[in-house]
Design brief:
Elements (H helix, E strand, L loop, with lengths): L24 H6 L14 H6 L15 H23 L4 H16 L7 H13 L3 H16 L6 H11 L1 H10 L5 H21 L1 H6 L7 H6 L14 H21 L1 H5 L2 H23 L13 H12 L6
Helix pairs in contact: 3-5, 3-6, 3-8, 4-5, 4-6, 6-7, 6-8, 7-9, 8-9, 9-12, 9-14, 12-14, 14-15
Length: 318
């Protein structure tokens, strides 16, 4: 069953407050509650794990076997650490990202640093035979963030998602020993959708960081200016642009959802959680009228649970 968004009207109004302009330092800190503290090259592992609770989807459901939960949380901690460096680290971020790549060299050489993030990552790499290329792609996505600040088309954005999001799904398949060419394609659809939905939620935060992930062609189509992206409320044009990305993400989710039926056991439950989180996030954005500036629409846990149960039921992932 495909995903249907709640019907919603897009009001024709726009309240622009005297906020800092796109990418201004003053607004950047205000718009980044998750990065209130300066990013560290190796933040405490417990703090990284705790942040998993704030994601749109269940990173590691408690019903999963302990070994799988441990590996999933390890991957999450690495990916979150790399993102934090790329988003908020003071100093030369490219140099810091190069150091992450050097740490990966040590992980794959069997001589990880004593840092808990890399020590745990080395254990997961060995246990699950994770390909280094997928971990490196996450680092490369953050390198791109330092030099590319806008994407002209949705296809260009999907190309970025191939670095920033899709590797995570492929690594998850390896954790469950469920990797195959077809499953990687389906997983890519799901992960790209989750990334697009997160970009929709974070329009204001990203704008203050000097980044715009809503495709330029769509912003031009709806007459959206940079000032519109830092307004107190989303204009009709901003809402229309966000709504278009949400619908595209829903289509990707529906295209990737058959992955759930291809899997069994813990893998099936985990992937159902990711798809369910995406669908619940899309619903939250629609219920907010696609206004992502006056507040950040977040999925309700009850909606995530209901979607998981539906996906795991007969025909639920079709």
């Amino acid at each position: 069953m495909g995903t249907e968004l709640p019907s919603t009207s897009v009001p024709d109004d726009n309240g622009i407050s005297p906020m800092p302009t796109l990418g201004s330092p003053a607004g950047r800190d205000e718009a980044r509650p998750m990065h209130a503290e300066p990013a560290q090259a190796s933040p405490p592992l417990e703090r990284l794990h705790a942040r998993a609770r704030h994601e749109n989807f269940p990173v590691a459901l408690r019903v999963l076997p302990a070994r799988h939960r441990r590996h999933l949380l390890t991957l999450y901690a690495f990916a979150r650490m790399v993102d934090d460096i790329g988003d908020a680290a003071p100093g030369d971020r490219l140099a810091l990202l190069d150091e992450v790549s050097a740490e990966l060299d040590r992980v794959y050489a069997g001589t990880p640093s004593p840092d808990p993030v890399y020590r745990r990552l080395a254990e997961t790499v060995a246990a699950c035979d994770l390909p280094r290329s997928q971990l490196e792609r996450l680092v490369e996505a953050n390198r791109r963030d330092q030099v590319v600040h806008r994407y002209r088309t949705f296809d260009d954005l999907l190309d970025y998602c191939a670095l920033s999001a899709n590797p995570v799904g492929r690594l998850v398949l390896c954790v469950f020993d469920a990797d195959s060419a077809r499953r990687r394609v389906l997983s890519d659809h799901v992960c790209s959708a989750l990334q697009v939905l997160e970009h929709c939620q974070d329009v204001l935060e990203d704008a203050y960081a000097g980044r715009v992930y809503l495709p330029t062609t769509d912003l031009q189509r709806y007459g959206v200016t940079d000032d519109d992206l830092v307004a107190a409320r989303a204009s009709t044009g901003v809402r229309a642009a966000v709504a278009l990305q949400v619908q595209r993400a829903v289509t990707l989710l529906d295209e990737g959802a058959p992955l759930v039926t291809e899997l069994s056991g813990a893998a099936r439950v985990a992937i159902a959680g990711y798809v369910a989180g995406g669908r619940a996030t899309a619903r939250a954005l629609a219920e907010a009228g696609f206004d992502v500036l006056s507040g950040t629409p977040r999925p309700r846990r009850t909606h995530v649970v209901a979607s998981v149960l539906s996906l795991l039921g007969p025909g639920g992932a079709r």
